[in-house]
Amino acid sequence: MDSIEKLLEQIKAENENPGPKSPDQVQAKPTPKPGKLPSANPPKVMYNLDSLLEKVQSEAKEPKVQPSLNVNPIALESTSEGLGGHLDQLFGDVKQEVEAREQAEQLQREQERQEEAKKLERLKQKQRFGLAKRAQEWLKKLDPYSDEGFWFGQFAEHYSSKLEAAIAYLEANPSEKRGEG
Q: Does the keyword Coiled coil apply (predicted)?
C-alpha cells in the first residue's frame, strides 16, 4: 500500500477511536477539563490532521535513495572486431554454401531440361518415322492419274522429294494421318 493510503487509514481510525496512537499525539493532546466532556473535539482532529499532513509532506520532500549500479561499458570496438570477424566468416561460409547449392540446383535443372529436350526430339523422330511409313503406303496407293494424284504432283514440286511432300500433306491433313482417306 502507498504511504498516503496508510495515513488516510490512520486518520479514519483516529476519528473512529479518538484514543492516542503515537507518542507525538500523546504530547500534543490537550487535557480535557474534568467537568466538561465534549462528544467530539474538533481542535484535536485538526491538530492530528495538521501533524499528519506535515508528516506526509516531509516524506514527500525527502530524497529517495535509489541504488546505483556501477556498470562498466563494454568496449564494443574491440568486441565487435572479434565477434564481427567470426560472424563475417560464418556469414561468408553460409553464403558460399547457399551459392554452391543454388549452382548445383541450377545445373540439375539444366540437365533435366536437356534430357526433356532429348526425349521430345526422340518422340518427334519416332512420330516422323511412323509418318514416313504411312506416307510411303499412301504414295503406293495414290493413283497419279486421279484428281488427287494430279493435285499431289503439283504440290510435290515444291519439296525435295515426293516422300517429303507426302509427309507434309499427312501432317497437315489429320484424317489422312489416321488412314481414313
A: yes
Nearest to 44 by CA among 25, 16, 21: 25
Do 149 and 156 touch, CB atoms closer than 8 A? no
Q: Report CA Rg, the chain.
A: 55
Q: Measured between alpha carbons, how far is 136 from 178 in angstroms, rounded to an integer?
A: 14
Q: What is the pLDDT of residues 51-65, one digit of tens each?
A: 888 888 887 776 666
Flag whether pLDDT at 36 surpasses 90. Answer: no
pLDDT digits (tens, 9 = 90+) for 11-23: 888 887 755 555 5
Q: How far apart are CA 102 and CA 85, in angstroms?
A: 25
Closest CA to 28 of 55, 48, 7, 9: 48
Instruction: Give one DSSP letter per residue of 83-127, joined into a string.
Output: HHHHHHHHHHHHHHHHHHHHHHHHHHHHHHHHHHHHHHHHHHHHH
Determine the distance from the C-alpha atom of residue 93 to the mean position of all C-alpha atoms in its chain, rounded to a whole number: 24
The answer to whether the beta carbons of residues 111 and 104 sit under 8 Å apart is: no
